[in-house]
Amino acid sequence: MLFRQGEPASGLYAVVHGRVALTTRSAGRERVGEVIEAGRSFGEAIMFLEKPYIVGAKALTDALVVHVSREAVFAELERSPGFARRIIAALSAKLHAAVRELDLYALGSGGQRFAAWLLRAAPAAQDGAAAVTLPASKRAVASRLNLSAEHLSRVLRELSTEGLIRVHGRKVEIPDTARLREWSERPRRA
């Protein structure tokens, strides 16, 4: 456990290797909000607001995570305009991703949400075949998409039966991304 929801924000974190889950707890249930992989950071926005963490963070695997104190970040911002621009760019990219995430949740069915998420996670997101390795367990991915694990299992079966994906453990192969995109954008009955 790196920190718990509600603890004071002390700085930002960078994942060198491994995976870290950002979680929220509500009504006694924990939900995975995001999985942070090597090369990414987290905690910047809340650090600037000087408010408590709105999520918890815990390693999902063996991980090396670097903590940079708020004081060190603020001192470097004063010294380096280039560093300030990189921080602003990183926060802007996260805001853009959050807006895209809201679009994802606006889709009708759980199958559409998963298909859209899968297409966004696909490398280069171009037409043709692609493969995505789920960043965490299927249960964690389901939680991220606001689905039950059972619902995600039904979605995986449906997409597999229709030949839109092939599942091998945590690896999901997409034989034709254009076909999956067309399926995900098709209007659904309520």
Description:
The protein folds into two domains: 11-104, Jelly Rolls; 108-185, Orthogonal Bundle (Arc Repressor Mutant, subunit A), CATH 1.10.10. 44% of the residues lie in helices and 25% in strands. The protein has helices spanning 44-49, 70-79, 81-106, 110-121, 138-144, 149-161, 177-185, and strands at residues 11-17, 19-26, 29-37, 41-42, 56-59, 64-69, 130-133, 166-168, 171-174. The strands form three sheets. Strands 4-1-6 form a three-stranded antiparallel sheet. It is elongated and about 55 Å long.
Q: What is the percent of helical residues?
A: 40-55%
Biggest sheet layout: 3 strands, antiparallel
Order of helices and strands: EEEEHEEHHHEHHEEH
What structural class results from the helix and strand content?
alpha+beta
Text of the CATH class of the largest domain: Mainly Beta
Strand fraction: 15-25%
Quick rundown:
By secondary structure, the protein is α+β, with helices and mostly antiparallel strands.
SSE topology:
Blueprint: E1 11-17, E2 19-26, E3 29-37, E4 41-42, H1 44-49, E5 56-59, E6 64-69, H2 70-79, H3 81-106, H4 110-121, E7 130-133, H5 138-144, H6 149-161, E8 166-168, E9 171-174, H7 177-185
Antiparallel strand pairs: 1-4, 1-6, 2-3, 2-5, 7-9, 8-9
Q: Which labels suit this protein?
A:
190 residues, alpha+beta, Jelly Rolls, Arc Repressor Mutant, subunit A, 2 domains, three-stranded antiparallel beta sheet
